[in-house]
């Protein structure tokens, strides 16, 4: 599994699936979540409302993931995950790592070969970008070594798509420290 760090806009990435740093309501919000909802069009909100009305009446749990179509996005799917909110006392790193692992499990189940992640829980949820980079990269590398039921993962490329040069630099450094360049 290759890992690449990209500075840019996740909504325009030519990958099979993008990961949305969603809130538990799945009904849109600010930051990456709002940008993805705007770029995907109103059908994304309708698909999320349908999930809430059927499979997820209480919302999506922290660390879990669920997929919808990508609608107007270049990506075929949007995988929504809810990162832990440090400001709300959610400081368990395993919850953050689960966002990456569960998103990859969903991607594999969809047959996605390429996935783009944002810096889940960095920003308004209060996690330090360095910790997010470290945990995210570790989780992706660990998943590549142990996918569901011993099968080879479908996902071949993971991009961490960061909006700022500073955050992209933090992720590049974490990737180098984790064992070198692209995985």
Estimate the global geometry from the Cα principal axes.
Answer: globular
Provide the spatial order of strands within the biggest beta sheet: 1-6-5-2-4-3
The largest pleated sheet is described as: 6 strands, mixed
The level 1 CATH classification is: Alpha Beta
Query: How much of the polypeptide forms β-strand, as a percent range?
Result: 15-25%
What would you say the CATH architecture is? 3-Layer(aba) Sandwich
Query: Total domains, how many?
Result: 1
User: What oligomeric state best describes the polypeptide chains here?
Assistant: single chain
- Our Rg estimate from Cα atoms comes to 15 Å
CATH topology: Leucine Aminopeptidase, subunit E, domain 1
- Number of DSSP strands? 6
Helix content: 25-40%
What is the tally of helical segments?
A: 5
Distance between the termini: 6 Å
**SSE run:** EEHHEEHEHEH
**Mean pLDDT over the full residue set:** 94
Q: What's the CATH superfamily, by name?
A: Leucine Aminopeptidase, subunit E, domain 1
Structural class: alpha/beta
As residue ranges, the low-confidence spans are none
How would you describe this structure in keywords?
183 residues; 38% helix; alpha/beta; six-stranded mixed β-sheet; Leucine Aminopeptidase, subunit E, domain 1
